[in-house]
Amino acid sequence: MNVMNRRAYYTIVENDLNRRAPLVIRDVGPWDQHPTVTNDAEAVVMALASQGYLPNGRRLFYYDSEGALDEILVKDGQFVGFAPGPDRKKEGS
């Protein structure tokens, strides 16, 4: 397998039909064959946006390779960064 063509492997775990609720995905690896969602976030966002999962304003959360829930920040269908998930925000308060 060409390393340059590898993409993160993930599943959608929450997709409320009203599309106002956040979309939640889970990174499933295996990471010796696929990059993590964290490391491939730009491509993950592009794929989800092109499939209609990320209309403007919809938030994207993901369970990372260690099982932590964090947020991938999206603006206009583009990856713009990361933010701590809801549980991590409470820990820091």
Q: Could you characterize the architecture of this molecule?
A:
The chain has a 5-stranded mixed β-sheet. Helix content is 18%, strand content 31%. It is built from 2 helices and 5 strands, in the order ββαβββα. It is α+β, with helices and mostly antiparallel strands and 93 residues long.
Structural class: alpha+beta
* Broad shape: globular
**Number of separate helices:** 2
Unreliable stretches covering 5 or more consecutive residues: none
What is the residue-averaged pLDDT?
Answer: 88
SSE pattern, N- to C-terminal: EEHEEEH
What's the number of domains?
1
The portion of residues assigned to helices is 10-25%
**Radius of gyration of CA atoms, rounded to a whole number:** 13 Å
**How many runs of DSSP E, i.e. beta strands?**
5
Largest beta sheet, briefly?
5 strands, mixed
Percentage of residues in strands: 25-35%
Strand line-up across the major sheet: 1-2-3-4-5
Could you tell me how far the N terminus lies from the C terminus, measured between alpha carbons in angstroms?
44 Å
Please summarize what this structure is.
By secondary structure, the chain is of the alpha+beta class. It is built from two helices and five strands.
Overview features:
93 residues, 2 helices, 5-stranded mixed β-sheet, alpha+beta
Please write out the topology:
Blueprint: E1 10-15, E2 23-27, H1 41-50, E3 60-63, E4 69-75, E5 78-84, H2 86-92
Parallel strand pairs: 2-3
Antiparallel strand pairs: 1-2, 3-4, 4-5
